[in-house]
Amino acid sequence: MRFDIITIFPEFFTGPLDYGIVRRAREAELIDIRVQDLRDFTHDRHRTVDDRPFGGGEGMVMKPEPLFEAVESLMGPRGDATAQNTAQKDAAIVLLSAAGKMFRQQTARRFAALERVVLICGRYEGVDERVAEHLATDEISVGDFVLSGGELPAAMILDAVTRLIPGALGNEDSALNESFSELPSAAPRVQPAAFGQSADRAASASETLAANHGILDYPHYTRPPSFRGWDVPEVLLGGNHEEIRKWRQKRALEKTLRNRPDLLRNGI
Asked: What is the pLDDT along the chain (268 residues), one digit of tens a residue?
């Protein structure tokens, strides 16, 4: 199985990959890990990977172009990740994000059955939303907290997946008798009709939920305003701060309903 890690701090992984089960799995050639420096896929003298967010706000946002180029140099042209061809069905492209779906043991099992996993380590205030929508197959969070970047989550996921690969643990029964070895009951599904209805109802409750930190972050966008036909929403370009605030509030609620409906279960 092959792991590709895309990061602006490749040196971070010098230590975590050289110990324990991961090291033994590498030595036994059960896994192949390759760390890619995202700055190698930039084309300006400063090797720029981030820019200011459209619509204003704090922090910087990671640009889509180097991330698309990095993944496509590894996987070939992607188009839209939601319409994978047959050759790509045995691979996952994972964006590590505090606004993603929760990583659980069943996610690790799903990844362990693949031939390849690409881990994209976000940084700064966030990653241009077009990466989550059109490049990544999965947007993953490792918990209800915010880290400085995706490097630690990437190492955690790599470890969790590696120990499920046959031969990695030595004794295969070890993985069967650990925490989370039994699949938990499936969480209630959010049906599309209910999604729209809940999103409308959520607008009136959004201030309370935001105050209780009960929703995910809103989508971020940076330059260019148009990338491969995917445009930055017009509202972020207009300069109307009240409309931007409302748009961000609504999109944050929609993303929470899509990725973490459990956060809203008690609030809506």
From this structure: 999 999 999 999 998 899 999 999 999 999 999 999 999 999 999 999 999 999 999 899 999 999 999 999 999 875 555 444 434 679 999 999 999 999 999 999 999 999 999 999 999 889 999 999 999 999 999 999 999 999 999 999 999 999 999 999 976 655 655 555 553 343 333 343 333 444 454 444 444 444 444 789 999 999 999 999 999 999 999 999 999 999 999 999 999 999 999 888 755 4
Rounded to the nearest 10°, the torsion over CA 186, 87, 121, 190 is -30
Positive or negative torsion for Cα 51, 215, 155, 113: negative
SS (H, E, C) 201-249: HHHHHHHHHHHCCCCCCCCECCCCCEECCEECCHHHHCCCHHHHHHHHH
Nearest to 3 by CA among 106, 121, 85, 83: 121
94 bridge partner residues: 119, 138
Task: Report the distance separating Cα 206 and Cα 209, nearest Å.
Answer: 5
For residue 2, what are the β-bridge partners? 32, 116
The amino acid that residue 158 corresponds to is L
Alpha-carbon dihedral of residues 76, 93, 151, 220, nearest 10 degrees?
100
